[in-house]
Amino acid sequence: MHFMNTLKFVALFLIANCFTLKTYSQERTPQEISQLISTYKDDPRGPYHRIKWFCEDGTEREPKDPCPDAIGGGIQHASFKASALQLRRSNHLFFGEILAGLSPKEFLDRNANFSRLKQYQIGKYLSSVDNGWVLRKAQFYRGAIQSEDEETWGKDFFIQILKDDDFIIQNYYLIRQSLKDIPHSGDDNIAQLMRSQSKLLSEDHPSFMDIRIKIHGQPEVSDIKLVNNYLKTKASVLKAEELTAFEALVKTMQAFYAPIDFKVLQDDLSKITEKNEATLSVSNFLKDYTQASTPEQISSAIANVLYTIRTHITDFKYSKNRLAILDLSIQLENTLLKESQEWESENIIDNLYKINTLACATLGTGLIESWEYDAIESQLLPQISGEKTTLKTLHAVLNVSRSIVEWTTTMVKANYQEEVNTYTKFEPLAYGFIDDKVRSSISLNLGEEVSELGALIAKLSNINNAVVDLKNQTAIRGLNPGYAFGKLMVVDGNPEEVNVNSNNIYIFEKPPSDLKPVAGIMTVSEGNLVSHVQLLARNLGIPNAALSYENLKDLKAYDGKNVFYAVSNQGHVILKVEGDMTEEEKDLFSKTEKTKNRIAVPVEDIKLDTNEVLNMRDVRAVNSGKLCGPKAANLGELKHLFPEQVVEGLVIPFGVFRSHMDQQMPGEGKSYWTYLTDTFLKAEAMRVENTDEASIEAFQLENLTKLHKAIIAMPLSSAFEKDIKASFKDAFNGALGTVPVFLRSDTNMEDLKEFTGAGLNLTLFNIVSEEAILKGIKQVWASAYTERSFKWRQKYLSNPENVFPSILIIPSVDVDYSGVMITKGINTGNANDLTVAFSRGAGGAVDGQSAETRLITKNSSELLAPARQPNYIRLPSVGGTKTYYTSYNAPILNEKNIEDIRVLAKTIRETVGNTSDADQAYDVEFGFKDDKLWLFQIRPFVENKQAKSSEYLISISPNINLNKHVALSTALY
Predict the structure, then answer these.
(1) pTM of the shown model
(2) Which value, to the nearest 10 degrees, does the dihedral of the CA atoms of residues 349, 355, 360, 366 take?
(3) Is the pLDDT of residue 357 over 90?
(4) Euclidean distance between CA atoms 405 and 441, whole angstroms
(5) Multiple choice CATH, 468-595, 3.10.450, 1.20.1050, 3.50.30, 3.90.1690
(6) Which of 358, 365, 547, 955 is surrounded by the fewest CB atoms within 10 Å?
């Protein structure tokens, strides 16, 4: 009997402490974590085990045996279940965090980009929107968390971390957000509480949804009246606990919209023992403004105070004063959120002034950086004399204002997206965290104001997007011209997990880094102008536009429906359901199918009898498509033109690959090459037999997958291995296996006149060992037969079987930052301008990172977007890559870099351009190491001229008279 009871105890223990018999180092799956969360929600103790005393000397005692004063005393709180502790070790996940007793360094979690702190904030959010989340029942577990101890710890934590000037400067946004969530002064995040209460009520009462949307989207003090009126109409049918919940919401809203308590602010200010510009600005505000001041006056004054606090925060010597002034800034921000909603701009000049004011507040609250604000401040409120301005000026203000709104939202994502993505895999509610952060910031009101300006400019310019029945379309702007018809797929989540269909039109929050062919795309975060995805879209005439996250959510109503989608040359966007298409629009696709021109890979001049490894110095641009692909040929040309800025290199020509493909393919009774050609011959035979394209594609992909694996396992000839080893030592002054190198695929299908092929095949980063390099050569050859590469070329090439890979081998340069330049203004169309995108570390900008993007002219450098990529890679000499995290408080490119870029572009235009087409723009990849410029690649920049010249696209592009004068008194409505 005793034995049976023991078994029962063990079974119950394992249920409460899920998965504890597994090895601690084994990472838990999302499904396992989701199951664990469910058990915590139903457990009266949640993730906690029992209450204990935790003493200063590191010992633990029972609840009735307090820590003696002689050993420094201690604190009492819950300990964690073994399953929760295990999850920390295996997945670095912290549920039900108890702050008291933690070391500040442990909680700050610098090495993981402050992940533990951010998880604490996400946990607080989930608790507010899901009735306690993992503490659903444990929130009533008496003694588990001592609020006084938590607040004491929080205050000590901030006083500790705020001693570091660099930490404040580099993480101002994160610090201010954590002040709203980490208890330290009896404070509450009232704005978040208001949104979470309204969300929970709308889930139980669908008729309350419209009011909830109003509270979330356009919060105003009048919302209190809306809730009270709702209560009056529903009072007779609501249960007592439901009435209590609505009354609690009203109480929260009244607290949120309470007038400024100047006395409380004055008392808080008086506790700061140091005086400087920051305290003076707060003091003057409290002295000069009263409750009788207008919302415009108060909003403008607070924006300036927030700006001054941020720019003078490190003037304080003592961190306790830094904490106090930051707490004051949080209170002032809450007031600004309310007052700016009450500030109504009636005409253009009011609108421009309000946008300028709120943009200043985004700097003051950490949503953009000081250098970013300095870069665009003069463009926000341009010099306007008299009572009129021009449409050109208004368009310029609108563009930069839209940019600021986007920068603010990307700041939130840059700080929290990694943790949100992790949590969303096992807790979908976490996805709302970023949206909640954006809505609780001045970004919401700034976005509304910019939309009002956009609506007026669209009206004055006769630019009216026609995107189904969306209410607010002014945030939508075209990036690449083109038109498409297909099924609309709205992806609200991680795009990397989506299997795309080439016939569909996709709306992404962020474009995936290795997008397969699609009919059209729209994105909330456009990435950067020169990423592989953007260049492919531009090259192939795939319509591409940017939209707001609100637009994305509204378009979910059309998910799965067939739509027509077009982007004009002027950025005008049309999206309509199939039934609303005109006859002209229907004809576009019947004609396209009949006259679709595929591109042929030229093979008439290819030389497959060159079987030895070539030194890149012996290769020139004229060899492109003959001996090797354009990467190697053009870099060889660059080595000749810029010997000090281009590394040494080796080229494995087409002929080496082709000779290896003549070997017998195991298990097939034929060579690798015959297997490949037979696959395409069989596909053509299937077409003759009227087999549907989906079946043909499935057959080809199955065969190519088999070929891909076989090439990776293919033996290399002894003659080739001997050749590569000798050539490697000669070129790089080190034996194979001692010098880290890049292996870059370089096919004859890249950089054709009408097809770029950018980023379709494999590049191997910083590999060192002989084994890895030899295997890598085969991996790069095989990458030409991956699903993504095949689908792009199958869609646009008439002879995809004639794709031959060569390989460019270059030594790794551990650059400080790297990126891409297009030798023309992509947005402006000006051939004399330069479009540049740069990210920190190696491999910058090409994979769609949120890069620092600039328009560089002869005399200026205009910031189009700052970098918002939190991580980057460096290339250690031992091989592989190492990930680092960064901040955003300084630009990537300096003035010397920008001047070097101008000189490089001028030289390319004068030398490379003259060898072919003087008007040809180029796509150049390069980087900087200790301010020295290193060139890695140059290729022609290919745009889709057919999309730009389409009669239909021209017909829907309005003719805008940018010199038209507009009175500044023009009403917004």
Answers:
(1) 0.82
(2) 180
(3) yes
(4) 11
(5) 3.50.30
(6) 955
